[in-house]
Design a protein that fits this description.
- The chain has about 350 residues and is an alpha/beta fold.
- A seven-stranded mixed β-sheet has the order 6-5-4-3-2-1-14. It has a seven-stranded mixed β-sheet with strand order 7-8-9-10-11-12-13, with no helix packed on it.
- Helix 7 links the parallel strand 10 and strand 11.
Length: about 350
């Protein structure tokens, strides 16, 4: 009897063990099947993977579009600044980065700014190789275009930058009051375009350029250059619209500011305004600033230039200077180049 009971116990133990093995194998198969399903969903359908897939094709900034103002080397000048010794050129450079990571560049500065501006481009590029959709040159003056010319002379910079389009308008028929032309600069910039294998664009009044996340519209192009006698008067005036509207004026003089105030009026309204000609008193038109009504103004000026416009008896009562002071006081935020490179959400 005991032998029979013992035999039954052995049989029961063997059955339990067999059932456990079968369940373990089934569970393993189920886990394998479930794992394959999860893996497929993770690659194609999960929210994180979809985001990664998009960013690999169109880089996106987490914070949104940015306007970056560059502190040029010349903006730190603090020496004499008056009609006797002259006005120190302050330079100018801006970068706009759209939500999609596209880059738009305005000017850049002088030759001495090339390395620093290149470093800034690297910082704001989503990829190791820098791609610029539009590099816009406001007018043919060295403190605005020499940075790009200098960069074109460094193989490491050229090899790491793609400029899709260079946008400028340097009319060959223009002559200033001394008989100087901008032909030399036009030839130099043409050579730079060849070095970077960039297309060149000469905008017209009302021209519009589109890039993912931004719209560029040209309000003033100096097609009337025969009436002009100062190279600053060749400055393009244009807007870049992301979620905010930014207006760039280069070194524009009252000729174009008055023309736009009289013809565009309330259409000049913008969120951010770059003050013309480094906030100096040889230009400035109050009706233009009233129509723009910008809550943020950008001052690409130097320490001494800003101080002279504010405090010098030679300039502070100048009509154009008063107009510029109005625009500054009317704004909620003021960004001066010599205070350092800055970033604005746009």
């Amino acid at each position: 009897m005991r032998k029979i009971i013992a035999l039954l116990m052995v049989i029961i133990m063997m059955c339990v063990s067999l059932v456990a093995c079968v369940e373990k194998e089934n569970n393993a198969q189920n886990m394998s099947d479930t794992g394959s399903s999860d893996s497929t969903e993770g690659l194609g359908d999960s929210e994180d993977s979809e985001s990664d897939s998009v960013s690999s094709e169109v880089p996106a900034t987490k914070e949104g579009a940015k306007l970056v103002g560059f502190r040029t080397a010349a903006s730190l000048y603090s020496g004499p600044f008056n009609s006797t010794v002259g006005w120190k050129a302050a330079g100018m450079g801006y970068i706009i980065k759209t939500k999609s990571g596209n880059l738009i560049v305005i000017d850049g500065g002088n030759s001495e700014d090339a390395q620093s501006f290149y470093n800034l481009l690297r910082e704001y590029s989503d990829t190791e190789h820098i791609t610029i959709d539009y590099w816009i040159l406001t007018h043919p003056h060295g403190d605005h275009v020499n940075c790009l010319i200098e960069m074109s002379e460094y193989k490491n910079m050229v090899s790491n930058i793609t400029i899709k389009n260079m946008v400028y308008y340097f009319p060959e028929g223009f002559k200033d009051r001394s008989g100087n032309t901008c032909i030399a600069y036009k030839e130099m910039i043409g050579n730079v375009a060849k070095i970077f294998n960039a297309d060149t664009i000469e905008p017209n009044n009302g021209s519009t350029l589109l890039v993912n996340g931004a719209r560029i519209k040209f309000l003033y192009v100096p097609t009337d250059y025969e009436k002009l006698n100062n190279t600053n008067q060749l400055s393009l005036i244009f807007t870049v619209t992301t979620e905010k509207k930014i207006m760039f004026t280069g070194d524009a003089f009252n000729h174009s500011l008055t023309l736009l105030a009289n013809t565009k009026g309330e259409d000049l309204k913008c969120d951010i305004l770059q003050m013309p000609h480094h906030f100096l008193c040889d230009t400035g038109y109050k009706p233009f600033y009233e129509y723009a009504d910008a809550h943020t103004v950008l001052l690409p000026t130097c320490i001494s230039g800003y101080d002279a416009m504010k405090n010098s008896d030679e300039y502070k009562n100048n009509t154009a200077n008063k107009a510029n002071q109005f625009a500054e006081s009317n704004a909620e935020k003021v960004y001066k180049a010599f205070d350092g490179t800055f970033e604005i959400d746009v």
